[in-house]
């Protein structure tokens, strides 16, 4: 604990964002370049080095947060990087994309603003790359065993890196043309520039991990033949089966799923397309769904030059303070939060029909109506109460040339042939069934990440990737492993 009074004398300060009018003109990350390092030393001083640090429990990776806070406050970046990477393969991802449940569990957050753990994590990761503290770590010797990892999102990449470093020969199969899964084509560049992903993939290649792109197992690659070729298989395909909205007018042109829309915008940033065929430019956009994916659609539509963009959230607007009875510390509370995309829509007045920033709260979609050519032109909605029951007299309509459905995901897509090709058992909710050791009903086949857990956070995906790697290593070695297993397949976030 570098400064015993730091939590008393220093207020919380976060990485400042660039002005909204400036940042919507590009796809770069929203934060002011170079403005983080002057902040994090003081913020790390606010850490109380608690006797029982609940930030450990709130983070599924078990990050050693008080330790690297202390090291950052002393400007020992090399040691801080070592402690951070001891539990997290990709802290530059989580430092940008994770909603920071660790901060909700910070003991200081009982009655003060929490330590800016996420910002400190990001600063350590970026400094480690700049200073060369994260060289490739190839294994000293090979085990002679080969593992296939299907899917290159955060769970698949974490599993592959852990298994490669343990000495196994690992090949990652990715159905898209580039590595990264959701990190590549689902997350907009303004939240995480792809150079961070490219850098990690380069490190993994240097360590010995092999990558196979444009290889959809079950369609391009026979699933059963792949299983026969490898000593073990890890399925980390993510939850790609999107939830539908079954209301009248769903069949109209211009109504699309978020994950049909976002990858095209990312491909424009990659240089594959000059313009997205689903571009929001000049169109009235309505995003149905109040979560992070909906906010990603919002920020993307603003950058594409939408005439207006409104986000519908079926839940009532949450409060600014934690409800101690319903969501007591250290659980992750549902609060009114202003993401970068919402801030942009508010400042630029992109959503004139919204209650606050770009959102209409407690709003449920009734139907879509279109023109004589069969293209959507309006979304009709109704206000709802806490039980999602319609409120009389609250019906209204919004102009809508483009509707984006961001309603979440239920599990892996059954249409690609992977599940049926391997004969995998499934849970009633649509995820891959597995036992306490991450093993499926097929010998030698394991499942991790959203494909088995269901839709979750990037930090849970990395934790599952590390844990399934330990399970596979134990399987291949005959019962022992030195790899850490931070979570079990049935672990869940803390709740009241």
UniProtKB/TrEMBL annotation:
Keywords: Amino-acid biosynthesis, Glutamate biosynthesis, Oxidoreductase. It holds the Pfam family Fer4_20. The keyword Oxidoreductase applies. Residues 11-20 have a biased composition (Basic and acidic residues). Residues 38-69 form the 4Fe-4S ferredoxin-type domain. Residues 1-20 are annotated as: Disordered. Pathway: Amino-acid biosynthesis. PANTHER family: GLUTAMATE SYNTHASE [NADPH] SMALL CHAIN. NCBIfam families: GOGAT_sm_gam. This is Glutamate synthase subunit beta. The lineage of its organism: Bacteria, Bacillati, Actinomycetota, Actinomycetes, Kitasatosporales.
